Amino acid sequence: MKKNHLLGFLMITLGIAMLEACSSSQFVVDETILLAYCKEPSQANLENLSKNYGTLINKTRKTGLKQPGIYSDYAVSLVKQGRRAEANSWFNREISEFASSRNYVMQLKRILIPEFINDNNIKIDDTEGSDNDALSPTSRAAAEERAASVMDKKEENKKNNK
Predict the structure, then answer these.
(1) What's the mean pLDDT when you consider all of the chain?
(2) Is the confidence at residue 57, as pLDDT, over 80?
(3) Domain boundaries, the chain
(4) 63 with 26: CB under 8 angstroms?
(5) Are 7 and 87 in contact (CB under 8 A)?
(6) What confidence score (pLDDT) does residue 32 get?
(7) The three-state (H, E, C) secondary structure of 23-58, written as one string
(8) pLDDT tens readout for residues 80-95
(9) Handedness of CA 89, 94, 95, 96 (dihedral sign)
(10) Cα angle vertex 151, ends 150, 152, to 5°?
(11) CA quadruple 69, 72, 77, 78: dihedral sign
Protein backbone atom coordinates (compact mmCIF):
# COMPACT_ATOMS: atom_id res chain seq x y z
CA MET A 1 0.00 0.00 0.00
CA LYS A 2 2.86 2.39 0.76
CA LYS A 3 4.25 1.83 -2.72
CA ASN A 4 0.95 2.94 -4.29
CA HIS A 5 0.94 6.08 -2.20
CA LEU A 6 4.55 6.77 -3.21
CA LEU A 7 3.71 6.28 -6.88
CA GLY A 8 0.71 8.56 -6.59
CA PHE A 9 2.79 11.20 -4.89
CA LEU A 10 5.47 10.89 -7.58
CA MET A 11 2.89 11.28 -10.37
CA ILE A 12 1.40 14.37 -8.75
CA THR A 13 4.82 15.88 -8.06
CA LEU A 14 6.09 15.15 -11.56
CA GLY A 15 2.97 16.53 -13.14
CA ILE A 16 3.00 19.74 -11.12
CA ALA A 17 6.73 20.20 -11.73
CA MET A 18 6.20 19.74 -15.44
CA LEU A 19 3.30 22.18 -15.50
CA GLU A 20 5.40 24.79 -13.73
CA ALA A 21 8.48 24.21 -15.85
CA CYS A 22 6.57 24.24 -19.11
CA SER A 23 4.02 26.94 -18.36
CA SER A 24 5.55 29.21 -20.99
CA SER A 25 5.82 26.40 -23.53
CA GLN A 26 3.18 25.57 -26.11
CA PHE A 27 3.48 21.87 -25.28
CA VAL A 28 2.08 20.98 -21.87
CA VAL A 29 0.11 18.13 -20.42
CA ASP A 30 -3.60 18.85 -20.40
CA GLU A 31 -4.19 20.09 -16.87
CA THR A 32 -7.73 18.72 -16.73
CA ILE A 33 -6.49 15.19 -17.43
CA LEU A 34 -3.73 15.51 -14.84
CA LEU A 35 -6.10 16.90 -12.24
CA ALA A 36 -8.70 14.22 -13.00
CA TYR A 37 -6.05 11.58 -12.29
CA CYS A 38 -4.94 13.36 -9.10
CA LYS A 39 -8.55 13.58 -7.90
CA GLU A 40 -9.42 9.98 -8.79
CA PRO A 41 -6.45 7.73 -9.62
CA SER A 42 -8.54 5.21 -11.56
CA GLN A 43 -7.25 3.03 -14.38
CA ALA A 44 -9.26 5.02 -16.95
CA ASN A 45 -7.80 8.33 -15.75
CA LEU A 46 -4.32 6.82 -15.74
CA GLU A 47 -4.77 5.61 -19.33
CA ASN A 48 -5.98 9.09 -20.37
CA LEU A 49 -2.95 10.64 -18.71
CA SER A 50 -0.64 8.18 -20.42
CA LYS A 51 -2.23 8.88 -23.82
CA ASN A 52 -1.85 12.59 -23.20
CA TYR A 53 1.86 12.14 -22.49
CA GLY A 54 2.17 10.08 -25.68
CA THR A 55 0.47 12.81 -27.70
CA LEU A 56 2.72 15.43 -26.16
CA ILE A 57 5.81 13.38 -26.98
CA ASN A 58 4.67 13.02 -30.59
CA LYS A 59 4.11 16.79 -30.87
CA THR A 60 7.54 17.58 -29.45
CA ARG A 61 9.17 14.97 -31.68
CA LYS A 62 7.57 16.46 -34.80
CA THR A 63 8.67 19.99 -33.92
CA GLY A 64 12.11 19.02 -32.66
CA LEU A 65 11.53 20.76 -29.32
CA LYS A 66 12.58 18.66 -26.36
CA GLN A 67 11.25 19.03 -22.85
CA PRO A 68 13.17 17.66 -19.89
CA GLY A 69 11.08 15.33 -17.78
CA ILE A 70 8.47 14.39 -20.36
CA TYR A 71 9.92 10.93 -21.02
CA SER A 72 10.31 10.13 -17.32
CA ASP A 73 6.76 11.34 -16.57
CA TYR A 74 5.45 9.10 -19.34
CA ALA A 75 7.54 6.23 -17.99
CA VAL A 76 6.04 6.62 -14.51
CA SER A 77 2.55 6.42 -15.99
CA LEU A 78 3.59 3.26 -17.86
CA VAL A 79 4.95 1.67 -14.66
CA LYS A 80 1.63 2.31 -12.96
CA GLN A 81 -0.07 0.46 -15.85
CA GLY A 82 2.28 -2.50 -15.45
CA ARG A 83 4.19 -1.80 -18.69
CA ARG A 84 7.57 -1.99 -16.96
CA ALA A 85 9.86 -2.89 -19.89
CA GLU A 86 8.43 -0.09 -22.00
CA ALA A 87 8.80 2.30 -19.06
CA ASN A 88 12.45 1.33 -18.78
CA SER A 89 13.00 2.33 -22.39
CA TRP A 90 11.43 5.74 -21.77
CA PHE A 91 13.52 6.25 -18.63
CA ASN A 92 16.59 5.42 -20.71
CA ARG A 93 15.47 7.86 -23.40
CA GLU A 94 15.22 10.58 -20.74
CA ILE A 95 18.80 9.85 -19.65
CA SER A 96 20.12 9.86 -23.22
CA GLU A 97 18.34 13.11 -24.19
CA PHE A 98 18.96 14.98 -20.94
CA ALA A 99 22.17 13.87 -19.25
CA SER A 100 21.54 16.18 -16.30
CA SER A 101 18.52 14.10 -15.30
CA ARG A 102 20.54 10.89 -14.91
CA ASN A 103 20.63 10.83 -11.09
CA TYR A 104 16.93 11.63 -10.83
CA VAL A 105 15.92 8.96 -13.37
CA MET A 106 18.20 6.34 -11.82
CA GLN A 107 16.54 7.00 -8.46
CA LEU A 108 13.12 6.56 -10.07
CA LYS A 109 14.28 3.31 -11.64
CA ARG A 110 15.59 2.07 -8.27
CA ILE A 111 12.21 2.75 -6.66
CA LEU A 112 9.82 1.78 -9.46
CA ILE A 113 11.56 -0.84 -11.60
CA PRO A 114 14.59 -2.17 -9.72
CA GLU A 115 14.82 -5.17 -12.04
CA PHE A 116 15.85 -2.80 -14.87
CA ILE A 117 18.39 -0.74 -12.93
CA ASN A 118 21.30 -1.99 -15.06
CA ASP A 119 19.41 -2.07 -18.38
CA ASN A 120 20.20 1.13 -20.24
CA ASN A 121 19.09 0.12 -23.72
CA ILE A 122 16.54 2.19 -25.58
CA LYS A 123 14.06 -0.10 -27.33
CA ILE A 124 11.62 2.43 -28.72
CA ASP A 125 10.81 2.37 -32.41
CA ASP A 126 9.39 5.05 -34.74
CA THR A 127 5.93 4.62 -33.23
CA GLU A 128 7.03 6.20 -29.95
CA GLY A 129 4.25 7.76 -27.96
CA SER A 130 1.61 5.73 -29.76
CA ASP A 131 0.69 3.77 -26.62
CA ASN A 132 2.34 0.57 -27.80
CA ASP A 133 0.45 0.20 -31.09
CA ALA A 134 3.62 -1.07 -32.74
CA LEU A 135 3.31 -2.67 -36.16
CA SER A 136 4.25 -6.25 -36.83
CA PRO A 137 7.36 -6.68 -39.01
CA THR A 138 5.29 -7.55 -42.08
CA SER A 139 2.92 -4.61 -41.55
CA ARG A 140 5.88 -2.29 -41.00
CA ALA A 141 7.56 -3.51 -44.21
CA ALA A 142 4.34 -2.98 -46.17
CA ALA A 143 3.91 0.52 -44.73
CA GLU A 144 7.51 1.43 -45.54
CA GLU A 145 7.05 0.11 -49.07
CA ARG A 146 3.91 2.23 -49.55
CA ALA A 147 5.69 5.28 -48.14
CA ALA A 148 8.64 4.72 -50.48
CA SER A 149 6.34 4.41 -53.50
CA VAL A 150 4.62 7.70 -52.58
CA MET A 151 7.98 9.42 -52.24
CA ASP A 152 9.11 7.98 -55.60
CA LYS A 153 5.98 9.37 -57.29
CA LYS A 154 6.57 12.81 -55.77
CA GLU A 155 10.18 12.83 -56.97
CA GLU A 156 9.08 11.65 -60.42
CA ASN A 157 6.48 14.45 -60.61
CA LYS A 158 9.13 17.01 -59.64
CA LYS A 159 11.41 15.79 -62.44
CA ASN A 160 8.57 15.89 -64.98
CA ASN A 161 7.63 19.44 -63.97
CA LYS A 162 11.16 20.76 -64.53
Answers:
(1) 75
(2) yes
(3) 2-129, 132-162
(4) no
(5) no
(6) 79
(7) CCCCCCCCHHHHHHHHHCCCHHHHHHHHHHHHHHHH
(8) 999 999 999 999 999 9
(9) positive
(10) 90
(11) positive
